[in-house]
Amino acid sequence: MNVIADLIEANLETLVRRFVEETRTRESSQGLKASEIITTLPEYLRVVALICRHGPTPERLETRARLEEAHINLRLRVGATQEDATDEYTLLGRLIPQLWDDLRPEHTPAASDLQCLFQQLEAAMDHVVVLFSGYSMEDRQREKRFLRQLDALAPRALKAHEDAQPRLKPLIDTVVRALEAAGAELFLVERGSTVMGAVADSGHDVPHAGRRRVDAAGPSFLGRVARSEEPLVQAQAHGLSDAEREGLGQQGWSTLLGLRLWPHGELMGVLCVGFSEARPVPPQTKRFLETLVEYLSGIIERALLMGKLHEAHARLATSETRYRLASQVATDSVWDWDLTTQEVTWSGGVQRLLGFAPEETGPTADWWVDRIHPEDRERVKHGIHAAIQGTQARWQDEYRFLNRQGEAVRVLDTGVITRDAQGRGLRMVGAMQDITARRKTEAGREQLLQEAQTARVQADTELGRLNTLLHQAPVALAIFRGPTHIVELANSRICQLWGRAPSQVLHRPIQEALPEVKGQGILELLDGVFTTGEPYVGNEVHVRLARAPGGRLEDVYFNFVYQPLLGAEGLIEGVLIVATEVTDGVRARQRTEALAATLHANEERLRLALEAVDMGSWDVNPLTGEASWDPRFRAMLGLPAEGELTLAEAMQFVHEEDRAKVEQAMAEANMPGGAGEYACEFRVRPPAGDGAKVRWLSGRGQVHFRPDGRPARFVGTALDVTERKREEEAARQRAEFEQYLVGIVSHDLRNPLNAIALGTTSLLRREELSERDTKAVLRIQASAERAVRMIRDLLDFTQARLGEGIPVQCQDLDLTTVVRQVMEEVQMNFPERVLQASTPGHGTRGCWDPDRMAQVLTNLLGNALKYSPEGTPVTVRVQSTDLEVLLAVHNAGDPIPPDLMHRLFQPMQRGVPGMDLATRSVGLGLYIVQHIVQAHGGTIDVTSSREAGTTFTVKLPRDGSRQAARG
Description:
Elements (H helix, E strand, L loop, with lengths): L2 H8 L1 H13 L9 H5 L2 H14 L3 H20 L4 H14 L15 H23 L3 H17 L11 H15 L3 E7 L5 E7 L11 E3 L5 H6 L5 E3 L20 E7 L7 E7 L7 H47 L3 E6 L5 E3 L2 H6 L10 H7 L2 H16 L4 E9 L5 E12 L5 E10 L1 H6 L1 H17 L4 H9 L3 E6 L4 E5 L1 H7 L3 H4 L4 H4 L8 H11 L3 E10 L8 E13 L5 E10 L2 H29 L3 E5 L6 E3 L1 H7 L9 H5 L4 H14 L7 E8 L10 E11 L5 E10 L1 H43 L6 H32 L8 E4 H15 L5 E4 L6 E4 L1 H17 L7 E7 L3 E8 L6 H4 L23 H11 L3 E7 L3 E9 L2 H7 L1
Helix pairs in contact: 1-4, 2-6, 4-5, 4-7, 5-7, 6-7, 8-9, 8-11, 9-11, 11-17, 11-22, 16-17, 26-27, 27-31, 28-29, 29-31
C-alpha cells in the first residue's frame, strides 16, 4: 500500500482543478485555455503515482520524461519563462501534500514515500532547466569538476604588496582549460583608485614591478568590461585601436570575452579570456564564465582577507612580544582592574614587594583599599575614583600601604585608564613601586628622576607601552653617550647592580666604570646599537662583575634592553640601558608569564584557524560532564545559543540512531591506557518544528589523562560534512544503477542477436542467393557477431563489477596450442597483416581456462592490429619458467599517450579518437583481459615508447586456479 499513490489517483480531478485555479492567477497563464494549462498533467500524475507505488522502472521513467517534455515544450510555445515552468512543479509539490492535511498521523505517508514523490518533481524541474537553457547535467558536472579544481588551487592568503602571479596563475590556467580558450589575463583594482593592474597571465609571467595598468573608467575594452554587468564579447580583436587595447598583453587573440569581478557590489577587477580564432560565444559559455568568475572572486577576496589577517596577527605578535619583554625586565607589582566587573588581578611582583602571594590578594578593589594606610585611604580613594569618572587617561599617587607584616611601605602607584567611545572607564592597568628607601635616602634625586621619566614618556612615543611600563618600574637606568660610552645618567639601582659608588660611575667611560667586562661582549653590543640604531633585548645575559672593591668576580645574570636615543636631527646621541638582575624569583615569574603568553597565543591561533575552516569546538570534563561549546558548534548541533549545557544534555541533540555509536566512540577514547583519540561521524536531528533535513557532523577529538590514568579533559572539533555525505550516497546510487542497467541491457540483447545469427546462417545455406544478397547477409552476420562480442564483454564487465569476478574453468592446457589456434583465426580476419609467433618447443603447459585464454589473446591481438601501421608485423612471444609462463604481444607504431597509461585498464576507455567506426568497441577489452588474468592469479603490464613500440606482457602461474584462490 502506498498512501501517496492512493491519494493522487483518488483525487486526480481535484488536483487538476486546483492546479488550473492557482495557475490562472499568474501573469504567464493569462489568456490561456484550460486545456493549454492542463496539457499532459493527468497522465503525468498517474505515472508519478505508479512510480511511487511500484518503483521507478525504465519504462515508467521514460514515460514520465516524455510527458514532461511535451508539457515544457508547450510552455515554451506560449512564451513562459524557465521560472514559470519550474513554479508549476513546485505548485504540485504543495498541492499533493494538502491531500493528507486532515488525515490522522497513522494514515499519512511515510518519509520514504514522500521522498520518492519529491524526487520525481525535482527531476522534472531539472528537465525544465535543460530544455530552457540547454545547460545539461553533463554541463553541470563539468562545472562542478572545474570548481573543485579552483578550490584545490586556491591560495590561502595574499598579502597586499605580494607578487600574486605565482599564486593566481594556476587558477587562470584552470579557467582557460574550462573554456577551451587560448589564454586569459586577470586585472585587479589597485587600492584607493580606479586603476586596474595585471596580476596574472596564463601565457607568461607578469612582473610585480612595472606591470600593465588600465583605467577602469576609460574607453578601453577592459574599461568597458569593468562597467558592464554582463559578459562582454569583442569580435575581430585584431582591429582594435591602441586606446581600445590598453592594458592587454596578448596580440594574437581574435575574440575577447570579458567579465568583471564584482563581489558585494564593488569592483574588484576584470578577467579577459581570449580565443585564437574568430568565433561566436554561445550562452552556455557566458554562463559558465559567470560561474567561474563568481567563484574566482570569492577565492581572491578570501585570500586577500586572510593576508590582511596574517599581517595584523604579525603586528599583534610584535606588540605582545614588546609587552612581554617589558614585563620581564620590570620588577614592580603590576595590577589590572576591570572597571565593569570590579575584578582586580595582581602580578607575581606583589609577593616580592609586599609579601602577599597572588592567591592571598582579594578579587576586588576592596582588598587594596583596606590595605591603604588609614591616614591616606580617603585621599587615595577619592583621587583614583575622580580620575576614573573624569576624562584623564592617567592616574598617579604616592601613599603608604600595609604589607603582609602590617608595616607601612611607601609606594608610588601609577595607572593608565582605557575608555570607551562615550568616555566611560573600562579598564585600568598600573604598577605599584616600593620607594621607601629612595624617599629616605634620595628624596631630592628621586623627584628629579621622576620628572625625567615623565618627560621621556611624553617625548618618546616610539617606545609606546614598553617605555610606559619601564618608567613606572624601579629598574636600573643608565645612558651611555659618545663613542667611549660615558655614563652620563645612573640611578641608585644601576650602582647597586654594578657594586659601584656613584662617584665611580658618573661621567666616566664604561671601560673605567666596569673594566672587568672587557672581552665579555658587552662593549661590542653597545657599539652595535650605537652604530646601527637597532634596539637590542637580551634575556639572562651572563656577566662577571666584582661587586666589592678588590673583591672576586661573581657570575651575575641580567635582563637587558638597549634603546638608541635620537637627537633633534635624527642622529644617535646615546644608548639607554634598562637592566634588572635575574634572581630565582624573577626566573620563576618569567617562566610563568612566558607560559601564559604562549597559551594565550596558541588559543588565539586555534580560534582563528577554526573560524577560517568553519569548524566548531568543544571542551568537556569527562568526570563531571561539565562542558563548554563554542558558538559555531552550538549552531551545528542545534544547541541553545546561550546558557550552561552538560555533555548528557548535549547528547540529546544527536540523532537517536547514532547516539549509541557516539557514546561508544567516547567510551573507547576515555579508556585508561589508550591513545585517547576520538573520531566519529554522526547525524544531528533538526530542532522540533524545523523543516530542515538531517545534517551530518564529523567529530575529531583527544582525551587527556591524569597521572593516575583517569580522563581529565576531552577537547575536539566538528565539521559539517552533510554535503559530502549526500554526494557519496548519490554517487553510490548512480554506480549501482549504471551497473544494473548494463547487466539488464546485455542480457536482453542476447535473444534478438541469437535470432539474427541463426537467421543469417540459415540464409547463407540457400543456393538461390545472389552475390549481392550474400554480401548483405555476411555484413549482417559480421555486425551481429560484433554485437555478440560487445554483449559478452558487457556481461563479463557486469559480473566483474556486481559478482565475485569473472569465473574461470581451469583444466590442463598447452598455451602454445591456444596461441596457434587464435592466431590462425585472427589471420583469417586480417589476411593482409603479418602475424609472427615465437614459442618454445615444450614447457608451456599449465592449469588454465582455454576459452578465457583465447579471449585474452584475441583482445590483445585485436588491439595490436588496430593501433599499429598496416605494413608492420604483430608478434606473439611465449616464454616459460619453472613456476610461470609469460605471454607477450608486441606491435610497432605511435606510443600510448602518457595521460592514457594510468587508466588503460579502466572500463569504458578507448584509444586515440578518429578510429574506423567498424572497429569501435564499448571500451571493455583491456578491463576484461585484466580481470581474466587476475582470476588465474596472474598479472598484466604494458610498456610503450616510440623507439621500442608497445608490448603487453601477461604472467600466468602454472597452477592458475589455486593461485587465484589463495589471492
